[in-house]
UniProtKB/TrEMBL annotation:
HAMAP family per record: Salvage_MtnA
Chief localization: cytoplasm
Metabolic or biological pathway: Amino-acid biosynthesis; L-methionine biosynthesis via salvage pathway; L-methionine from S-methyl-5-thio-alpha-D-ribose 1-phosphate: step 1/6
Protein name per Swiss-Prot or TrEMBL: Methylthioribose-1-phosphate isomerase
Cited function: Catalyzes the interconversion of methylthioribose-1-phosphate (MTR-1-P) into methylthioribulose-1-phosphate (MTRu-1-P).
Molecular function (Gene Ontology), one example: S-methyl-5-thioribose-1-phosphate isomerase activity
Protein's cellular compartments: Cytoplasm; Nucleus
Active-site residue list: 246
Family: Belongs to the eIF-2B alpha/beta/delta subunits family. MtnA subfamily.
């Protein structure tokens, strides 16, 4: 059983093929940006932070093999390859923000006459490698702030019952996770009574990935079908919901896995606090609200088949948006590595 979604050392990158989990553990070599684009687009690796990290590491792998000595050509090629990687999946913002930062770095290294081509390459690759460490640090901070916020809002409860959706753990990040990081922190503090995870049709990130992580760490948990959320809140006294994010707009509207929006509506009806856990790299302050977030639509086959087995009638048309947008009005707080913010206070979090 492996929870290491990304294996990296200088010159070597492998990703855990999440399409095969939980039954098979197989790592796929990523030898450049073409491979990086493919493993992201096919969802062999997925999760907003992991997409950004794997995409950028695939560029680092390619750059290491490049012996170009012309910094202007290097800069131009870097920009083109980063824009190509961003196109692999449109909704998560992390890779777009990482690409913008790296293009700015390439521009300044290229313009600095005191920097040689080799120094340019080395500093650029180091900058990408730091993403791995920073992501895990951010996730542990998210876990701390999120668990404190949930426990604080429920002072009369010694142990909490939490619902989560999709997969936001070590398989969606460089490690520890965002929403699942909050759940790990609650468990580590011995304050988690139980976590419920939705199966998250049609890719089944919950049944195949979150359940895999929870079982691996012996965290008390139960898998539910997506359509059970209302019945669960009606009968199981859920303390809080905590989910991840692919793109949070400046007003707090949040794009996340399809099904998140209806969970937020049910939580509102049952007065259950609804939290979004996301690093600042998931926040897009350039978008005023969520209605401008591009929602990726995935192939029909992800709905009509489970593996090779067809489960839907041949000929039926399908609509398969991979995400939906939860309005800020349904969100209690956004848990970041800088602390927990009300949706209308996000500007205080983003530098
Ligand atoms: C910390 S992962 C954030 C986010 O990414 C997942 O989407 P996908 O599995 O399609 O990449 C899901 O929306 C998670 O909440």
């Amino acid at each position: 059983m492996s929870l290491e979604s990304i294996k990296y050392e200088r010159g070597r990158l492998e990703i855990l093929d999440q399409l095969l989990l939980p039954l098979q553990t197989r790592y796929v070599k990523v030898q450049g940006v073409e491979d990086g684009w493919k493993v992201i687009n096919k969802m062999q690796v997925r999760g907003a932070p992991a997409i950004a990290i794997v995409g950028c590491l695939s560029l680092a792998i390619e750059l290491l093999k490049d012996d170009c000595l012309d910094k202007k050509i290097m800069r131009q090629e870097i920009e083109g390859k980063l824009n190509y990687l961003v196109s692999a999946r449109p909704t998560a913002v992390n890779i777009k923000l990482a690409a913008e930062e790296l293009i700015n770095l390439a521009n300044s290294l290229s313009a600095d006459e005191n920097v040689t081509a080799d120094e340019f390459r080395e500093r650029f690759i180091q900058s990408i490698e730091k993403m791995l460490i920073k992501d895990i640090e951010d996730n542990r901070a998210i876990g701390k702030f999120g668990s404190e916020a949930i426990l604080k809002s429920l002072e009369d409860e010694s142990h909490v019952r939490v619902l989560t959706h999709c997969n936001t753990g070590s398989l969606a990040t460089a490690g520890y996770g965002t929403a699942l990081g909050v759940i790990r922190s609650l468990h580590a503090a011995k304050r988690l009574e139980h976590v419920y995870c939705t199966e998250t049709r049609p890719y089944n990130q919950g049944a195949r990935l979150t359940a895999y992580e929870l079982v691996h760490e012996k965290i008390p948990s139960t898998l539910i079908v997506d359509s059970m959320v209302s019945a669960l809140m009606h009968t199981r006294n859920i303390s809080a919901v905590v989910v991840g994010a692919d793109r949070v707009a400046a007003n707090g509207d949040t794009a996340n896995k399809i099904g998140t929006y209806q969970i937020a509506i049910v939580a509102k009806y049952h007065n259950v606090p609804f939290y979004v856990a996301a690093p600042l790299t998931s926040i897009d302050m350039s978008l005023k609200s969520g209605d401008r977030i591009k929602i990726e639509e995935r192939p029909d086959r992800e709905m009509t088949h489970i593996g090779e087995h067809r489960i839907a009638a041949p000929g039926i048309s399908c609509w398969n948006p991979s995400f939906d947008v939860t309005p800020a009005s349904l969100i209690t707080g956004i848990i970041t590595e800088k602390g927990v913010f009300a949706p209308d206070k996000l500007h205080e979090a983003v530098p």
